[in-house]
Amino acid sequence: MASFFSPPPALSAIKIVKPEAAQFVQEDESRTSSASAIPTRRDSTQRQCRNVMIYGSCKYQGKGCIFQHPTPTAEEEAAAVAASDAAAAAFENVRPETPVPVTPSLSAQAVNAPVFVPKSAVTSPEKSNHASSPAPASLTPSPPLAENGYHEDDSYEYHYEDGGLEPMGDQYYDDQHYDMSYFSTPHFVREPLNYHLYTQTVPPSFVNNSNDSHYMPSSHELRQTLQMRSEVTRGGPAPGAPLGLPDELQGYHTLVPLETSPADRRKFGQWQSTVYRAVKEADGIPYALRRVENFRLISQAAFAPIEQWGKIRHPGIVAIAEAFTTRSFGDSSLVLAYTYYPGARTLYDLHFNKTQGTTAPNNSPYMLISARNSSPVPVPESTLWSYIIQLASAIRRVHEAGMSVRVVDPTKILLTGKNRVRIGSCGLMDVTMFDQYARMASAGQDPQQVLQQQQLDDLSMFGRLIIGLCVGQTNAATGGQFQKSLEAMARSYSQDVKTAALFLISKNNPHRNITHFFDIISSRLVKEMDDALHAADCLENELMGELENARLVRLLAKFGFINERPEFARDARWSETGDRYLIKLFRDYVFHQSDEYGNPVTNLGHVLTCLNKLDAGSEEKVMLIARDEQSCLVVSYREIKSCVENAFGELARATTRPGKW
């Protein structure tokens, strides 16, 4: 069987040798002859130099500039001579009459001192300043050069055996005289992201009460909040967070602990629970995983309420995705997956926790907004009514579905936005208490009566939560604190708040249900609806500002399609003439500018201004200069836009036709 073997490729290495003197002479002669062979333009000597026209003089006059330089007149020469004489006379007047002797600052012994070379410096022997000077007799010769041309020892110290200067020892490199922390491993401080790269499309003064929206912050704060939420979503664990988490958990990965509440506030009955953020492998969306430690599932029927909770979609309830058991944590754990709200905080951490630390989950600026306060944040009455109406709406939705919430607790209610609350951890009590419900059903108790009692418990917990928010204490509605709490509520809040709270915690009221509660607070619903509609209008106005935010990207894409296409380099119809040449000059004007020192100019404002004018087709004129500075064009942005559209149109039409361009 025949085989073909390609010859091995030749080595591409080039041997570097020292050039001979004759080679330099030959190169100079060839360079001179080639330069003389280049024809010069016939009309170059008849054109006046542009440097003289712009700057008044040419620094290359008489040094090779081939353009015409006007000869100065007799009057101009006389004026220049007079100016130089006046300057010389002024200099003579300030010159001292007697010369001042200059005292040398160095002694005569310093002539024989060697040149100081640091330890870390590595200089070539041929280019060093002291290499050609003769060394003193008492100087120890330097070590021989290695094959790479450098000394084996990097010390470069001169040692004197008798008299003269002292040896150059460690006194010049004593580490005790310097702050060695400067030379230690660099500590990179995490700088916050730049959230201010956007400009406001509409001034706040033109939007009705844009800064006083009850549910939405101002435009600037809204952008910053959204950027911070994105940062929190992709952030790492907070310092001191527990490690040793599983890498994969039933299709979830990248687990990050979120809760920093004390252990006694994370209890669900007799179980401890922890919340993690994890990314689902199936869709790549982060979820909040609530883990119940050391839980043993009795029957798979306990997951039946999870299916019912999954059908409930309400703006005041954190939606549940799924529930499963796992042994990835080293024990039998129950895990429930909920919708993740980045930067969310519980009402307990915001309004009840008096000993919260300064470090919040994920170590994010957004999480530290309220964590810096050592005292709970008081609740204004307008905000309190927003909490009440949103929670009452969520409880009503659950009761109408034939279920009970069971978790109306400040540690389970999340604040996900400005005055926006949601009930979290729903369905967890239904799973953990399933065996107890089964025993009650087997004992002959009516399930409907049990459900009705659980719904009344929801109202009682809701009433105690309102009193606790007014006072700032979780036990404000228990024991001897109840009467004091009512007096504190009467001093700070209206009578309607007290009436609503007392209705919810009353036990002898036969009409105590969530529907009748809405009849009591109906006067507050209108204002809450107005605030919600106002927030929707503000959000729509913000969305209008982002409606055409991709137009500059479309322009840049067209520039990339048109400029310098390699397949059309030899095509006369697509050469850099006409429209394509104009587009190329405009590209250089926008992106390839340089300052007076030759440094590139990276001004994002200039780029955005030019592209916006081009997209709008402004009539403003702009001067485009060629790269050789021999020609310039003055055109408007409208003409440049027309050139871009025509050139891109030709490309678009060429893609629809078969065959070669």
TrEMBL record:
Keywords: ATP-binding, Coiled coil, Cytoplasm, Metal-binding, mRNA processing, Nucleotide-binding, Zinc, Zinc-finger
Biased composition (Low complexity): 131-140
Segments forming domain C3H1-type: 43-72
Domain of life where this protein originates: Eukaryota
Keyword Cytoplasm: yes
Annotated Gene Ontology cellular component terms: P-body; PAN complex
Basic and acidic residues composition bias: residue spans: 149-162
GO molecular function: ATP binding; poly(A) binding; protein kinase activity; zinc ion binding
Region of interest (Disordered), residue spans: 122-168
Gene3D superfamilies attached to this UniProt entry: 1.10.287.3700, 1.20.5.5160, 6.10.250.3160, Transferase(Phosphotransferase) domain 1
Sites where the protein binds ATP: 290, 411-412
Keyword Cytoplasm: yes
Family of this protein: Belongs to the protein kinase superfamily. PAN3 family.
Quaternary state and interactors: Homodimer. Forms a heterotrimer with a catalytic subunit PAN2 to form the poly(A)-nuclease (PAN) deadenylation complex. Interacts (via PAM-2 motif) with poly(A)-binding protein PAB1 (via PABC domain), conferring substrate specificity of the enzyme complex.
Alphabetized HAMAP family for the sequence: PAN3 (MF_03181)
Protein name (database record): PAN2-PAN3 deadenylation complex subunit PAN3
Gene name in the database record: PAN3
